[in-house]
Amino acid sequence: MKREPADIRIGLSDLHLGKGGCPTARAVKVRGGRSWPSRMETGGGLLVDFALGPLMNLLDQVEFGTRGMERVLERVVLTREEYYFRGELVHPGLVDWTIDLVKAYLAARDTHLARQGPSCPIPVRGEWVVRTELNRVDRRGFRIYERFCWGRRYESADGSVREIWLLSLGAVKDRSVAQLALGAYVAAHGQVPGVSTSKVGAAMPRLVRLVGFGGTGQARVLDQRSGVEVGEYFADAAKEALAAVIDTDVRVPGGDCAGCGELPDCGSVVRVRLLPDLAPSRALRTRTVSATDLRTYSICPKKYHLVRQLKLRDPNWVEGTQITLGRGVDALLNKRHGGVGAVRCRPDDSWPLSTIELAAEQRDRAGRMLAQHSGSCPLTSEVDSLPQVQRTVSAYDAHLDVVFVGTPDLLYVEDGGWVWRETKTSSKPLWVGRSLLRRYPQLALGVLFLAVGAVDSRTSSGRVELEHLQVDDRAVEELDVSQPAVVAEARSVVQDLLVPLLADTRFEASPGRDCRSCEVLRWCPEGREHVRRTSEGAEKSASD
Predict the structure, then answer these.
(1) Could you tell me if 475 and 468 are in contact, meaning their C-beta atoms sit under 8 angstroms apart?
(2) Which of 8, 16, 105, 207 is the most exposed place for a label (fewest CB within 10 A)?
(3) Could you write out the DSSP letters of every residue in 173-220?
(4) What is the band of 41 on the pLDDT scale with cuts at 50, 70, 90?
(5) DSSP 8-state code for residue 225
(6) Are 168 and 209 spatial neighbours (Cβ–Cβ below 8 Å)?
(7) How far apart are CA 156 and CA 162, in angstroms?
(8) 25-39, 67-81, 167-181, 382-396 — which is least confidently predicted?
(9) In this structure, which long-range contacts are made by residues 251-254, counting pairs with CB atoms below 8 Å and at least 24 apart in sequence?
(10) Rounded Cα distance, 230 and 223, in Å
């Protein structure tokens, strides 16, 4: 008999809302079992954009097949350039990352089994689901509810011990109490739909365990408890959280808009023609684009896909000192400017430099940059209201089917007009030989947001500021949004960066000077070859 689809289908990941995420977009996802698009479609091409999908597929082949890890991976290597997962092409960089993670996962499983007492050596193919069917629809208008926990499932031979492994791209994630309670509840009470079992204790395991595994290759037990206590644990820690996810009507336009089924009718989304001269999009899926996306793609399409789309990063990658310095300065400025009690920064202010992770020399540089900022701090009597720190601004261009997203360091009103400020730290003064808008595309995007009224529909006036901080100097450059030439240049900058991105279907590597510091160099043979050749060339020049 065909199983009736659920009205509500909610999983562990639905209990976490990312920074700037939209509660209603998440609620739309869980209502009726509808899910966000799980692929990226650019110009008609299909690329897998769920990084963990191919990993789960290969682990299934190893754990439920007969060929073993080496033979499974050997076939993947042979088809690396044209490897498909569920009919969608897997980027070669993701293939390389997946191969590494398959080996790391299976090694972590072996170590875990050797260390744990009651073990769960038997993989479970189907998904554990806790399904509740009511006699009639409830006050929400729903009748069938399903709770699940995405991951990999294992059990002991007699079914008395169950485990769920929760996978993440980076380090092992710490999960909230509500997430752990839901995961334990699914492990204790979940059944594979349509599959009956006669194992002793399968209906109520003696022990359930949640294990986290991350892209670092490490595994860690997150929670372990007896099956009999799980029901009360779930009721105390998770039921209200699940209800809040389902019942919300809070809308926060931003990065979640592109994957939300409510986008066509959502009244909270600003609709604009940001680039009216471009032809309509032929893409099959709405995309989200930020200034960081545009800048990263212009450096290397492969890096854009792996880092910005798939969220991959080498766990051994070390961020450059200039980047960490800028991040530390930004963090202290954001904390100082935010809140009701925010006041103008002064040269003699004491900054909590010990709270940012920098070497002693870098902390000294950060302190001197913060002192320079005091001369251009916008918290003055001329500001009409307190600045908004790191506010997400978004606008949907239906003509292009793109959601543009920007996050200025500060937004504030002065003389009735909005000011969009970006703060940058540098070891060098501004280079006057290049357009500010082309050097910093976030400024160009800010100009367009203000010009089309995306920040405030009541006005399109204002200016964009670049605050440029050095240890012994500062500069504040202003761009007047009321000037047609400024808006025209901003459109030209964004259009020049956006057009090739929208047309790309392969995201191939573009080796260059940024390869050496790239966070995905490990999975980029083209980049490694470039680094090798340039290193050999430098050594040869030095010897000559």
Answers:
(1) yes
(2) 16
(3) PPPPHHHHHHHHHHHHH-B-TT-----TTSSS-SEEEEEEE-TTS-EE
(4) very low
(5) E
(6) no
(7) 7
(8) 25-39
(9) 251/22, 251/23, 251/24, 252/20, 252/21, 252/22, 252/23, 252/24, 252/392, 253/22, 253/392, 253/394, 254/20, 254/21, 254/22, 254/392, 254/394, 254/403, 254/405
(10) 11
Q: DSSP state, 119?
A: -
* Longest CA span, the chain: 85
- Alpha-carbon torsion (323, 326, 330, 332), positive or negative: positive
What is residue 136's three-state secondary structure?
Answer: coil
DSSP class of 156: -
* Structure-token pair, residue 90: 């897997």
- DSSP assignment of 329-346: HHHHHHHHHSSTT-----
| 481: number of Cβ within 10 Å | 25
Digit-coded pLDDT (tens) for 379-399: 876 666 778 999 999 999 999
| Alpha-carbon torsion, ordered 193, 198, 204, 209, to 10 deg | -70
Burial environment of residue 189 by CB neighbours within 10 A (0 to 12, 13 to 18, 19 or more)? buried
Tell me phi and psi for residue 460, to 5 degrees.
Answer: -120, 20
Q: What is the average per-residue pLDDT within 184-210?
A: 80
Nearby residues of 210 by Cβ (< 8 Å), 6 or more positions away: 163, 164, 166, 175, 180, 183, 184, 187, 221, 222, 223, 224
Rounded Cα–Cα distance for residues 189 and 384 (Å): 57
Q: Are strands 122-124 and 88-90 parallel, antiparallel or unpaired?
A: unpaired
Crossing angle of the two packed helices 52-64 and 68-78, in degrees rounded to 10: 140
Q: How many residues does the chain have?
A: 544
pLDDT at 284 over 90: no
> Are the C-beta atoms of residues 305 and 293 closer than 8 Å to each other?
no
Q: Which residue has the higher pLDDT, 116 or 162?
A: 162
Within 13 Å and on the Cβ side, how many CA atoms surround 198?
0
Determine how β-strand 402-406 pairs with β-strand 393-397. Answer: antiparallel
Element (H, E) at 258: none
Q: If you ran DSSP here, which 8-state letter would residue 82 be given?
A: G
What's the confidence (pLDDT) of residue 540?
A: 65
- Structure confidence at residue 246 as a pLDDT band (50, 70, 90): very high
Structure confidence at residue 5 (pLDDT): 82
Residue 530: CB atoms within 10 Å: 20
- Write the pLDDT tens digit of every residue in 81-138: 999 999 899 999 999 999 999 999 999 999 999 998 778 999 999 999 999 999 999 9
For residue 188, the tally of other CB atoms under 10 A from its CB is 25
User: Among residues 311, 302, 19, 323, which one has the least CA distance to residue 171?
Assistant: 311
C-beta atoms surrounding 22 within 10 Å: 26
CA-derived radius of gyration, the chain? 26
Residues 6+ apart with CB under 8 A from 166: 12, 149, 150, 151, 173, 175, 183, 210, 211, 212, 213, 222
